[in-house]
Design brief:
- This protein has 5 helices and 14 strands.
- By secondary structure, the chain is an alpha+beta fold.
- Strands 1, 2, 3, 4, 5, 6, 7, 8, 9, 10, 11, 12, 13 and 14 form a 14-stranded mixed beta sheet that branches.
- The two termini are 26 Å apart.
Amino acid sequence: MGDDSLTARLERFRTRYDNFRSAVVNEPRGSEVIVGALLCSPVDKSCVTGVIFFNNVGYLGMCGHGTIGVIGTLAYLNQIKPGMHRIETPVGIVEALLNECGEVSVANVPSYRFASDVTVEVQGYGPVTGDVAWGGNWFFLINDHGQRLTLDDLEALTDFTWSVRQALTSTGVTGADGQEIDHIELFAPSPRDGVDSRNFVLCPGKAYDRSPCGTGTSAKLACLYTDGKLREGQVWRQESIIGSIFEGTVTVSNNEIRPTIKGSAFITAEADLILDKRDPFCVGIRK
């Protein structure tokens, strides 16, 4: 993959080795919900590793639950011990604290709200208003949506959020420098005591996030802080649609909001992937 910047290596991965991405995360070996992490040598030697995250349709700048998984995996392989570890991603360096109990706190890249109260006309639903924010990936965050955030409503939630994403694209709403907004995030109150919010996150490949979404929670925290609804150090507990929880806080320095997300990851299997060129689906079933 080379020893130049991770941004350059990601682009080389995309243009030359995309079949490998597809083979790993798509069926028959994977599924639409899997996020892959390609470990590579970091440019910054203070980092324990570099990482390029990828999913069923492409590549991610950063992945919060993926970073927690990388740290958990390195610990399982006895390559790191509890303590602070730096990880280089295509969008910047993050710091991950591995606790003795196995929990991981990820200090993410600086996050911010790019545009507030953006309204788009969504076919079949009417006007929808949300914020455009960066948390390592680009998000459209919607509080007022009229949807029930329950597992029983997955089909309706997917249809709604996919329609919103299409509306953003067709009307030219983007992040900074024209970057595509490829994550849609809905929020509602959580029915659980001590939990601040429940979310539903539609990922780029039209799968929903089973985690509370580290980069999405980072984007939310940046918006909350900007609105004066969250103080430095105040814990925000974010629940996913399946009930998993991240704890988030922010620190602010030099006018940059840096979220920290705490969660856990668990090893479920070790496997060898076999790529047989005779297999008509050797490189995965692509959408």
